[in-house]
Amino acid sequence: MSTIDLTHAHPTVASSDRPLEYRDHNQSVKILGFWLFLATDMLLFGCLFATYLVLRTHTDGGPTPQQLFDVPGFALETLFLLTSSFTGGLSTLAMRNGNKKWLMIWLGVTIAFGLAFIGFEIKEFVADVAIGATMQRSAFLSAFFTLVGTHGSHVSIGLIWMFLTLLQVAKRGITPVTARKVFVVNLYWHFLDVVWVFIFTIVYLSGRVM
Amino acid sequence: MALRKSNESHRWKAAVLTAVAAAVLLSGCGPQYMVLDPAGPVGREELHLIILTAVLTGIVIVPVIILLAYIVLRYRDKPGNTAPYRPQWSESKVLEYVWWGIPIAIIAIISVFTAKTTFALTKPPAESKQVTPLTIQVTSLDWKWLFQYPGQGIATVNYAKIPTGVPIQFELTADAPMNSFWVPQLGGQEYTMPGMAMRLWLEADKAGTYYGHGANFTGKGFAHMDFHVIATSDANFNSWVQQIKSSSPSLTMVGYDKLKQPGETGNLSYSSFPPNLFNSTIWAEGGRYMPNMMSQTGSPMTGMSTAAKTTTSAKMSTKSKSTSK
Amino acid sequence: MSFHEFATKYLMWNEGPMIWGSDALILLTSIGIVVALTYFHKWKWLWTEWLTTVDHKKIGIMYLIAALLMLFRGGVDAELLRTQLAVPNNHFLTAEHYDQIFTTHGTIMILFMAMPFIFALFNIVVPLQIGARDVAFPYLNAISFWLFFFGAMLFNLSFVFGGSPDAGWTSYPPLTELGFDLGPGENYYLLAIQISGIGSIATGINFLATIFKMRAPGMKLMRMPLFTWSVLAACVVIIFAFPALAIALALLLLDRVVGTHFFTMLHGGDPMMFVNLFWIWGHPEVYIVVLPAFGVFSEVVATFSRKRIFGYTSMVTSLLLISVISYFVWAHHFFTMGAGADVNTFFAIASMLVGIPTGVKVFNWLFTMYQGRIRLTLPMYWTLAFIPTFAIGGATGIMLAAAPADYQYHNSYFLIAHFHQMLIGGVVFGMLAGMYYWWPKMFGFKLDERIGHWAFWTFNIGFYVCFMPQYALGFMGMQRRMYTYPATMGWNTLNLISTIGAYIMGIGFLFIVIQVLYSIKYGERDLTGDPWDGRTLEWALPSPAPHYNFAVIPTIESRDAWWELKEQGRQEELRPAAGDIAPIHMPKNSAKPFLMGLSFFVTGFGFVFTVIPIAILGLAGVAALMVARALEYNDEYYIPAEEVRETEAALGRL
Ligand code: HEA
Ligand code: HEA
Ligand code: CUA
Ligand SMILES: [Cu+2]
């Protein structure tokens, strides 16, 4: 076994009714830790949302949400990210079934959709900047780029991380450790998806409507 | 600053009062204890709350300290101590109800008075609700205070005259990092913030010169950001206004931009100021940060002319007067 | 840039003797350390035993040393402040220097003294109290420490390189925006706290996971010692509060470095948003640091009254209530920002509500002593001094929370007196009590009682002499953050008295230093592992504990587990039987946490001076270390059972 087992107080023997990534005590501690991390990350985004809501009318005569947000663009981004979350789910399923090949395929597909999402987001940002809507222009734009950009950088980090996980699965197969890693990276990915749903409604949709 | 002269007897008194901090709260102090020596209804109302909270918290705190001393003396681990020793005794529903109950009761009482006073202070003092209020617009700058009298058309720097017995509506903003406007003997403070307007009601019922100071740090010159509010009779106030109108220079936009530069100045007076200066200060650079806050403070934040503005504030005062009835 | 320009701009050589003195001192100390390490051949020891350690006990000790050093730095700042205020119109410090010093004083005391001090006790105590071999994530724990450490280094560097921040520990914009504050000082503030703050979030996660998942069998939640409960409560607050700080700092940094307009006076920025975010963290922060102190007092009171803690369930409930309510009171720090009567009333009442569970704790401590047998040891002295101090400070807190009354106290010396009474009477007293209490467990000897009494009395008397006059000064209209005041205000005498008090406290601190040095040589050795006749699991171990803590993980049957076994004469059951000892799995030491801290330091330094290549270099280091960690599979080892048996035998436990 290649993990830290500090206590031996808890049976590490497989109780096979639980998913693979939970069977070993150390992996389940790590998963709990990751949930706690997600809670802090959620609050981080919560503060950014609050800031955006306070500042979104502070356009100082510059571009407003209506003028800026381009419906097909963010609709497509949403589609890519939601689909990637679904394929991410499929990868976890394949992992549970011990199917290494499909696990890797679904991870690969997820990464591809994630890359497409990032690509479109960059394209959108570049277009905004080209019409003078930079983050230095107004408080609204500062808040917009920071909120959406923070999500985007989370996604980018997630992509690198998922790629590293893919490599490890390729090399080591499905073990309690790699299973936990696949599980956790997917957890992260779903979390980013949820955050995006909020961005989609609070920023983009209500920005178009109001 | 005749008021603040420190003579030996005051010092001596101060030293004694220090020894017992609690005594400070309750004693009728000399004028140097500004907060405890209010010169108007707002400060007095706040003092009442201060005394009330001090007494009510004291009711628990003092027994706690006495109990502590008693327990430590009685249950010390020394040979021959005959006090009972019950190492397993660790629960008592009755006792626990008592000390969840006492703080709850005390907090409840304080909460009621706090809520009452909080709402009361958003209106002009009840004592003088018949009197038409005076509006003074205050802008904190680096590191000086500009007072504009929209009704009188004059402006001053680092001092303000007010008539006694008249509720004063201070409208507050900043054209510099945020500060806080505080005249302890008249009553509590309120922040001055760039891009926002706040309202603070104060009133003096005794003539005198009252010390004021910025209460929020604004950098190098902050320590010297004091000013004075001089309360005089109505007649004196009016003749002072006339005198400023006839003998002082006017504040131009150029003059204001110069005044805005970081630095300290003494007292200044102006017979007029650029129309709409206060509002345009707030609206500069996009303002309108907290629309609901502005309507709450009732500040006429519609970016109109000074004349229109003055009438609005007069209207507002009548409105708030009627609500306070 | 010529050397002369460089020296003026960054080394601040024209600023006078204070800077030269510090430069010289830092240089001499550094040289001294290097020479000493080389002469005694200690480099390798330092690296393998300390810098790369992942052992919670050693990390705890490093936190403790750092906290004491920062208490000294913050304390010297305080002495300088008080010296400047001793007399009116004083020219001992200029306005600029004074502003920098109160800023660094407040920031250091809260973030680089109080925080590491509580983390020291988390680390030293929690795994031992719950019967674990380490925390849930030892490697992350080391990262937390090094992020704190290098954050603190970055912050302290500002004093001699480029200039300190000078806008208060609260750092409100727009004063801290580029338009008013060009200097690197504010950048130092933003980055140093950000870096150590990331470490704090990680610590919060780590200890929550530890407490939830690593308890010995039988240690149900309601059997946990109250210190561990207080850590749990504090960690919950950390997790909820620190993200807000991270955002506040990051957005202000963006304003300053990238030119955004979150909090500027220009282009629609809203400074009040920062104020909100800051206090959404800032208020819970003061409870984060005081909750563990409550935990310490609970342990100390029970141990030295030889009695069970009174009302254990209430104690747990009140801890949790405090941590929940503390999240809904932040606006009491700006009652005077015009939030409207309804909002002020809500936050006023919420603030006062905290007094209820806190009061319950006070009464429960009192009744733990009642009908007990009180031993007046040093930890108990500090606990007893805490109660009246905290009660008075709490009462003035309630007074501040009455919103309209606060219009008259806000930012006056009344407020300064309130929070020093809480932070010193609550946090510092608590941490000192904890330090005295667990010192034997950490080092195997007790701190000398006689010198300890001198320290206790001078520090306490000094405290009252220093801070009681400040309540009066508040009523006299004296503002905080004034570098000087005119002679005509009637403030002279009280300020002088306060300064004298501060000096007496300084002497108290020196006694503590002397006490530690003296006790290293002459302190009473602790051979039993249970010098206080303790109640909880850590006292069942030898002092100091072996690095795997428990040779065999115990099974817990009750609250006060160790005390109960002693009462029943069953303490032998907590000794390992040779046959039960199996090989122990432990994490390996690692250089990466240290390098991670270093990389963050480089990143921070790059951003402070907006030298982007340096920042990128640092970030590359961070990324490389993260990837390396992700791909690491071989980070633990077994201690053979034989070795464990030998260690235990040498400790006389087999
Ligand atoms: C450890 C630190 C600590 C602690 C524990 C507290 C505890 C409390 N604080 Fe304090 N506070 C600070 C540190 C702390 N504070 C700091 C650092 C600042 C200023 C920061 C700055 O501006 O720089 C501040 C500022 C501050 C303000 C802002 C004032 C202003 O800026 O104008 C207010 C206002 O409500 C306040 C209130 C309270 C209250 C109600 C409590 C309560 O939790 C107190 C509860 C305790 C008791 C009440 C005593 C025990 C109870 C009993 C013995 C029995 C029951 C008693 C009664 C029913 C009365 N505090
Ligand atoms: C845990 C937190 C903590 C602690 C322990 C302290 C400890 C002390 N504090 Fe501080 N203080 C703050 C937190 C803390 N403070 C905060 C948050 C602020 C607000 C900052 C701001 O406005 O932004 C503040 C502000 C503050 C002010 C107000 C400054 C102003 O607004 O202008 C003052 C003034 O008296 C003061 C004094 C002291 C004193 C005398 C001590 C004493 O307890 C110190 C005791 C001394 C030592 C422990 C070490 C002694 C040193 C030596 C032995 C060496 C001897 C050397 C020489 C004499 C040069 N503090
Ligand atoms: Cu200040 Cu709104
Ligand atoms: Cu608070």
Features:
heterotrimer, A: about 210 residues, mainly alpha, 7 helices, elongated, disordered N terminus, B: about 325 residues, alpha+beta, six-stranded mixed beta sheet, five-stranded mixed beta sheet, 9 helices, about 20% strand, disordered C terminus, binds heme-A, binds dinuclear copper ion, binds copper (II) ion
Task: Describe it.
The complex is a heterotrimer of chains A (210), B (325) and C (654). Chain A is an all-alpha fold and 210 residues long. Chain A is 78% helix and 0% strand. Chain A contains seven helices and no strands. Chain B has nine helices and eleven strands. In chain B, the strands form two sheets. Chain B has a six-stranded mixed beta sheet with strand order 8-5-1-2-3-11. Chain B has a five-stranded mixed beta sheet with strand order 4-10-9-6-7. The two termini of chain B are 38 Å apart. Chain C is mainly α. Classes of the chains: A mainly alpha (210), B alpha+beta (325), C mainly alpha (654). At the A-C interface, α2 and α6 of A face α7, α8, α9 and β1 of C. Residues 71-72, 75-76, 78-79, 81-82, 102-103, 105-106, 109-110, 113-114, 168-170, 416, 420, 423-424, 427-428, 466, 480-481, 502, 505-506, 509-510 of chain C line the site of one heme-A.
Order of helices and strands of chain A: HHHHHHH
- Nearest-integer average pLDDT of chain C: 93
C-alpha Rg of chain C, in Å? 25 Å
Strand arrangement within the widest β-sheet of chain C reads: 1-2
For the CA atoms, what is the radius of gyration of chain A? 20 Å
H/I helix tally of chain A: 7
Q: What would you call the shape of chain A? A: elongated
Largest sheet report of chain C: 2 strands, antiparallel
Strand % of chain A is under 5%
Question: What is the strand and helix layout of this fold?
Answer:
The complex is a heterotrimer of chains A (210), B (325) and C (654).
Chain A: H1 20-23, H2 25-55, H3 65-68, H4 71-96, H5 100-130, H6 139-172, H7 176-209
Chain B: H1 8-19, H2 21-26, H3 41-74, H4 93-120, E1 134-141, E2 144-149, E3 154-157, E4 159-163, E5 168-174, E6 179-183, E7 187-192, E8 198-202, E9 208-214, E10 226-232, H5 234-247, H6 253-260, E11 268-270, H7 277-283, H8 291-297, H9 306-324
Parallel strand pairs in B: 1-5, 4-10
Antiparallel strand pairs in B: 1-2, 2-3, 3-11, 5-8, 6-7, 6-9, 9-10
Chain C: H1 3-9, H2 17-39, H3 43-51, H4 56-85, H5 95-130, H6 138-160, H7 184-213, H8 226-257, H9 271-305, H10 312-325, H11 341-353, H12 355-369, H13 378-401, H14 403-409, H15 413-443, H16 449-475, H17 492-522, H18 561-567, E1 584-587, H19 592-608, H20 612-630, E2 636-639, H21 641-650
Antiparallel strand pairs in C: 1-2
Helix pairs in contact in C: 4-5, 4-6, 4-17, 5-7, 5-9, 5-15, 6-7, 6-19, 7-8, 7-19, 8-9, 8-10, 9-12, 9-15, 10-12, 13-15, 13-16, 15-16, 16-17, 19-20
The structure holds heme-A (HEA) (2 copies), dinuclear copper ion and copper (II) ion.
